[in-house]
């Protein structure tokens, strides 16, 4: 192999490598500075749990979601936190809720970021109907319609949405009215046979007289007797006052004490 041929092969390798690098870098060069930051943040997180990597606490995501959703921010965030992974479909990086912790507020939510247009869009299912909230870039003269992955695209089609509602309603009715099994059928047949036997043994009269057809007036309820007034209890007798004991007589003073001797005291 000559030296000139080796040089040509090397040149072809360099050109091929340059084309590959240009294909990878060109989309980034076309993005706005904010779009480049979003790509650098979200692309490495594809396939990971958004709660484990703290996606909703990233200022670049949190601030855009608050500005976009307004009063719907808390409801949407509660639903999106049930998503188990960040997904990618072409230029779309998205999240989809797996269940609803607040069924009275909304049933489903999806967050999509389009790397081609740097547009963030949210789909919120309320009462079986989608509520779509999307960013509109200031430099766009026409309204920018958001793109959706296949997992959310069916919710934007009225016919498919109606079909989903019918399927959900049918499933709910089937759960409430479960189809009986073989035992249930046999039991129902047994009940029918017993009912038929009872009807044969106690046939209803075919002719109904006019008096029987007239509804009888309900009997008036008896007036309850007035309860007797309880007798007033007798006042207990006042106990007799005990007699005052007689005062004992004062004993007589002895005669010796009646006349006391007089002692004369002589002054010196």
Question: How far is the first residue's CA from the last residue's CA?
Answer: 181 Å
Rg on CA atoms, Å: 52 Å
Average pLDDT taken over every residue:
73
Main beta sheet: 5 strands, antiparallel
Quaternary structure annotation:
single chain
Q: What proportion of the residues is helical, as a percent range?
A: 40-55%
How many strand units?
5
Strand order of the biggest β-sheet: 1-2-3-4-5
Strand content: 5-15%
Unreliable spans are 21-29, 181-185, 197-217
Shape: elongated
The ordered H/E elements are HHHHEEEEEHHHHH
Q: How large is the count of helical segments? A: 9
Which class do the helix and strand fractions yield?
alpha+beta
Fold and architecture overview:
There is one protein chain. This protein is α+β, with helices and mostly antiparallel strands and 268 residues long. The chain has 9 helices and 5 strands, in the order ααααβββββααααα. It has helices at residues 3-30, 33-42, 59-69, 73-80, 150-153, 158-176, 182-201, 210-213, 255-258; strands at 87-89, 92-96, 108-114, 119-126, 129-134. The protein has a 5-stranded antiparallel β-sheet with strand order 1-2-3-4-5. The longest helix is centred in the first third of the chain and has 28 residues, at 3-30. It is elongated and about 165 Å long. It starts with a helix and ends in a 10-residue tail after the last helix.
